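ok trying again, last paste got cut off:
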Amino acid sequence: MLDLAWSEILLIAVVALVVIGPKDLPGAIRGIADLIKTGKKKLASFQQQADELVREAKLDEVRNQIADVKGALNEIRSFDLKGEITKAVDSDGTLTKTFSENPMGGSSTPAWTPPPTARDVPDAPAMIPPQTMAPYKAPEPLPTPPAPDMPSFVPPSTPAPLNVAPPPEPVPPAPAPPVPAAATTPPSPAAEAAAKTA
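nice, full thing came through this time. structure:
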């Protein structure tokens, strides 16, 4: 709202008291309060009318969108996919004509006819009696191949040695060099005195 400090409000009150006068000041304050109330009411009614206009505009937009979606759905439902594909692939009708007629020519007889069976011949017996058939003769067994002189696989009696090198022998550590006796340091006089007292 208005950004007024207390000092500014006090200055306005003093100026209003001097200009309007102490007798007319309460009536002026009431008039200003009424003016503010009517302004707020008019502003609220204007805001309400603006909101209604916006709602109506949005509803009209939503109605238009719904109508567009319904129109698109009707187009999809009435779409003839088979007709469109036929129009794109076979616009002159030659493929349809080829598949509806015999592609091999005018004759409708098959190129190969199976031999007649007993069912197709009218005087054929339903069954041939077993006495008129030749007796069953088992086929001769196949000759066995000659046995080889030695078997094709002989398992080894002992496993073959692997070509693995033996592990290297460990190298013994070198002995520490001996310390010469003359190289040792003589004890200090303070160490000798401490040893004597102990």
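cool. The chain has a mean pLDDT of 76. The two ends are 99 Å apart (CA to CA).
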